[in-house]
Specification:
Blueprint: E1 4-7, E2 10-13, H1 17-23, H2 27-39, H3 47-60, H4 66-76, H5 80-101, H6 105-116, E3 118-126, H7 129-140, H8 146-153, E4 164-169, H9 175-182, E5 189-195, E6 198-208, H10 214-234
Antiparallel strand pairs: 1-2, 3-4, 3-6, 5-6
Helix pairs in contact: 2-10, 3-5
């Protein structure tokens, strides 16, 4: 017997669902959620944690009255038990992430640290090599500030901020600029150098080394989790429907 699922006046056979997920571009998210469900299957939370999660869910969705809750459930086609499972799911995900990566986050931090440091730097760019040399010496000798030179002569969007950029991750600027910044001391001014069609002057203003504090720890665990989900989802082989869905009518 073929399983059927009725939506309004339409009856959908079970074998149609993969094709519908592909048509609506929902398959990648569907696979991700399947991976997560399998991962958290053995995770548990206390009844107190579950009640707190449900209350937070109500607050997040502004479900402040029984009527509002009932209307929301009807609009989603869900039962109160479905809502509880939905609310508790993030709690179980966090427990899974902690169990799987808590012991690995320190080594991952050391691996990623060079990309996690933050910098504030000044940048001036021009296509005129002679002008770049002249401005460099003006700044070096204190005849004019970097901010004034950048505001007047820089040909990039940094001119609007007097050349000052950041704080940004040291991995965000062009790799050539990032390499300069990584070996700079605050206040160090670099002589003009060519980068594509530009001649650039760079000065490191501030260096903020990354710290493995609470927010950074959470960020890295989240990174590991997302990377793991993507890898696991790609391992799942979904057969194509043997009976393609008819094209949508115009």
């Amino acid at each position: 017997m073929v399983d059927l699922f009725q939506v309004g006046n339409r009856v959908i056979a079970a074998q149609e669902i993969p094709g519908l997920l592909r048509r609506y571009q929902m398959m990648p998210q569907f696979l991700r959620e399947l991976v997560i469900d399998e991962a958290i299957a053995d995770c548990e939370c206390t009844e107190e944690e579950a009640q707190t999660a449900v209350v937070q869910f109500y607050q997040q969705h502004q479900l402040t009255t029984p009527e509002a809750i009932d209307n929301w459930l009807k609009s989603q086609g869900m039962t109160p038990d479905d809502l509880k499972q939905l609310a508790v799911r993030p709690v179980l995900i966090e427990k899974f992430k902690e169990a799987k990566w808590a012991a690995k986050v320190k080594s991952y931090f050391m691996e990623r640290k060079s990309q996690l440091d933050f910098v504030v730097y000044s940048l001036l760019r021009t296509k005129d090599e002679g002008l770049a040399q002249e401005l460099y010496y003006r700044i070096l000798e204190g005849e004019q500030t970097f901010a004034d030179c950048a505001s007047q002569y820089s040909q990039g969007p940094e001119a609007r901020t007097g050349g000052r950029l950041g704080p940004v991750s040291i991995a965000q600027p062009h790799p050539a600029i990032g390499k300069l910044l990584s070996v700079s001391q605050p206040g160090q001014l670099w002589a003009p150098r060519q980068l594509a069609e530009w001649f650039i002057i760079v000065r490191l203003e501030e260096f903020h080394p990354a710290q493995l504090d609470g927010p950074m720890r959470q960020r890295l665990i989240d990174e590991l989790f997302q990377r793991w989900i993507q890898e696991e989802a790609q391992k799942i082989s979904i057969p194509h429907s043997q009976n393609p869905l008819p094209a949508a009518s115009a």
